[in-house]
Amino acid sequence: MSGPSVAEFRRVAQPAGHLERKNGEHWAGVLYMRNLSIYVTWALAKTPVTPNQLTWLMTIVGIVGGAVLALPGLWAAVVSALLIQVYLLLDCSDGELARWTGKTSLAGVYLDRVGAYFTEAAVLVALGFRASAVLPDWYTVLGLAGALGAILIKAETDLVDVARAKGGLTTATDASVAQFRSGLLGLARRILAATKFHRIVQPVELSILALVAAVIDTVMGGVPATRVLVVACAVAAALQVVLHLVSILASRRLA
Question: What pLDDT does residue 94 have?
């Protein structure tokens, strides 16, 4: 007998409403990657590969994608951007495979978060190395600072659930995230969210920006655009660490 069609597979692996989750789906996933990942997952479902193995592979690809960016030349930025796209593909496929096989697990969720932490840090650290004239210099330090900031931002988010769990509460809902004790703070958060400046330190967006910077560097000579990007990432990460913490404390997430 033939296996399930892609349409049947999609109904289970990408259930209705899944792609519309607030803050739950990357824009690139909605725009194009989910249309590709379903075919990859459909093929992988016929193999012994498990969802957690895919997540491990995703993490390795993400770290390698970051490491390649540390190398000089335009080709390194191109390869890095392509590897981060593969990372995103695997990030989509591991969850789809888990839903299809019924092998969703807390371990899988944990590994997925670990992979995101490592990949985001790897790309930022590598960008700092790429911008450095000697090792280490201030651009190396800024790359490391940006990576630390990115990790702290994710930790601030994850620690909300830790705090709620220790207090005997359930996971924060989208409604509690959106509610603020001060209307002015709520307005400020919506304005900042509309700028999307927080995405500059995320792997997919940053790998694309790094590629654009590499093209400019190739035309101009040296790495001036990459250095500007490193500084921008460090500043954005520092601002986000503070603003995200204030946002959490001012919201209903810890209530």
Answer: 94
CATH of 6-250 given 1.20.120.1760, 3.40.50.620, 2.60.40.1930, 2.40.40.20: 1.20.120.1760
Please tell me the predicted confidence (pLDDT) of residue 98.
Answer: 93
pTM exceeding the 0.85 threshold for the entire prediction: yes
Distance CA(116)–CA(119), nearest Å, equals 5
pLDDT digits (tens, 9 = 90+) for 6-18: 888 889 988 877 6
- Segment 63-92, tens digit of pLDDT: 999 999 999 999 999 999 999 999 999 999
How many residues comprise the chain?
255
Closest CA to 84 of 205, 174, 197: 205
pLDDT value for 24: 64
Closest CA to 207 of 91, 93, 112, 65: 65
Whole-number Å distance between alpha carbons of 24 and 9: 21
* CA–CA gap between residue 71 and residue 182 (Å, rounded): 47
Task: Supply the pLDDT for residue 176.
Answer: 52
Domain boundaries along the sequence of the chain: 6-250
Alpha-carbon distance values, 78 to 32, 37, 68, 74, 139 (Å)? 19, 21, 9, 6, 21
Sites in the chain below the pLDDT cut of 50: 1, 175
- Structural contact between residues 229 and 127, judged by C-beta atoms closer than 8 angstroms: yes
Classify residue 254 by burial, with Cβ atoms within 10 Å: 0-12, 13-18, 19+: middle
Q: Which of 158, 143, 154, 156 lies closest to 206 in space, CA to CA?
A: 143
Among 159, 236, 174, 239, which residue's Cα sits nearest to residue 205? 236
